[in-house]
Amino acid sequence: MKRLTLLIIFAYLFIFSCKKESFITSSNAVIGFSADTIYFDTVFTTAGSVTQFVKIMNLNNQKILLSDIKLMGGNNSPFRINIDGASGQESNNIQIDANDSLYIFISVYINPTMSNLPFLLQDSIQVSFNGNTRYIQLQAWGQNAHFLQHSKITGDVVWPNDLPYIILDSLVIDTSAVLTIEKGCRIYFHANAPMLVDGTLQVQGGSDDSSRVYFLSDRLDYPYNGYPGSWPGIFFRTQSKDNLLQFAIIRNAYQGIIAEGPPVNANPKATLNECIVDNIYDAGILGVQTNIQATNCLVSNCGKNIEIAYGGNYSFTNCTVASYSNDYIQHIQPVLSLNNYAANGSNVVTADLNSNFINCIFWGDNGTVDDEISLSKQGSTIFNISFFNCIWKQKNIPSDADTSHIILNMDPLFDSVNNQLRYYDFHLKTGSPAIDKGVNTGITLDLDGNPRPVGLPDIGCYEKQ
Q: Which of 21, 199, 274, 369 has its CA 20 to 30 A from that of 234?
């Protein structure tokens, strides 16, 4: 009896094994796709794209033979496919084992066109098996652009808002050059592409979203379009002068704005009006013995929002400086730090530091920081730091600062803070302690371009309307 039972088991296993090794030929065979449609976000012409993939799954208990996998657009398609490691627009007689799968990798390359607007590109991948035909749809938005690689600006140059600007490797503004960027321009930087300013940068953005000037990474595909540290940043170097950023947005850089060295004339090295510096991996604004003037600016969710080192002269008026820990950046550094020294080998050198902060918010949460303002002084050089009509989150009050009308540890009540979704709206809610608590500085508008009252303005970059 035992022998008979073993023979039955062996026979069953043999039949089952043979069945798994045979091909299913029925038209009722089932295959699955990991996605019915593959979407690509904006792909700039000639720059290519990231690679995406789709998985084809054999949902049967027998092998299946795909008679054909074909890119329908063929060699004229902007899309390129790689079928389980083999490049080409078509492949025949592809076997997939029972309950196994294969991958198709897809990329898209777009030839330049005369169109100034995004345009839709479509194709499909046909999969044929057992008399059945299935399709995977492909869709990408393409856009023509100005491409600049290892480029140097010389003389006076104006960038109009006709096409996006794609910066590859680096962009240098020469010492005698002035680059003027008109409202509405979009400038996208590759991962290894800083903007290096030895001359002058003039950014002429407008108050509404479509007319602001954006400095962003060229990775527009999810999730990379939200990553901090995706491009190096904007560097105003020692010879640079008379830089003005008006209604500019700098986002997702390693460092946002860096200014170094004293100005070469009586003007600030960098003037920032109505600017947003957001989601920066390291310092949002870094000043090293220089001169920066900022008005109505938002510096948010950076590794170190504002860092001032080795002295200099700084003025920040009606600015909001805030950070929250999220999946991309942990809030472990103060939102504002100032010092008057630098290491020179084994020696420490110091310089005069003059800074004033009027009608500003310094706030952080969901992190490990008790004191959002950090002051550090060495030597006997000038160390003048003043805060007037500001909101602080602070446990230990710094003794090296002149303070007046400080609102201490009262939540400014920002409109929306969602760390899980990384959604932040730094407008003020009704009842915010910042409302009508500023001092009149003559500033007549806010970061949105909305009017501020002649009397008592709100603290921070936004005026409650």
A: 369
